[in-house]
Design a protein that fits this description.
The chain is an alpha+beta fold and 129 residues long. The protein has two helices and eight strands, in the order βαββββαβββ. It folds into two domains: 57 residues, 2,3-Dihydroxybiphenyl 1,2-Dioxygenase, domain 1, CATH 3.10.180; 51 residues, 2,3-Dihydroxybiphenyl 1,2-Dioxygenase, domain 1. β6 and β7 form a beta hairpin.
Length: 129
């Protein structure tokens, strides 16, 4: 059994943020609010980041690369090794397509890498180092 949850973050792509926020708020009774994220928009799902482990959290995401439908949800897995570069190396060895090399997230939120799995799904791996 793992000490941390397997899924660390997810994003659901949307084309109309207002419509998506209303849908999720109405469906689940949330109080999502859209906010700017660079030139894009996000609406975060409720999460307790003080809890240890914090569990899976995520957001609705509207941006130039967010295409609902066939692009699917991007699931961010927490790096088991603590450095997503290690899993990226394994992905290379397994022949996975690398979509984005290890990249720093602004404001001290760590690093991530984006790959295409063996089935063609986009997945990401996150770590603090």
């Amino acid at each position: 059994m793992t000490e941390r949850n397997v899924v660390g973050w997810f994003e659901i792509p949307v084309s109309d943020m207002d419509r998506a926020v209303k849908f999720y708020n109405d469906l689940f009774g949330f109080s999502l609010e859209a906010s700017p994220f660079g030139g894009d928009q996000i609406a975060m799902f409720p999460a307790d980041f003080e809890k240890d482990p914090p569990g899976a959290a995520g957001c609705l995401y509207k941006g130039k690369d967010a295409i609902p439908g066939s692009s699917g949800t991007i699931v961010y897995f927490t790096s088991p090794s603590g450095d997503c570069a290690n899993e990226l190396k394994k992905a290379h060895e397994l022949g996975a397509k690398v979509i984005m090399e290890k990249t720093e997230i602004p404001d001290g939120h760590g690093f991530f890498t984006l790959i295409q799995d063996s089935e063609g799904n986009r997945i990401a791996i996150h770590s603090q180092q």
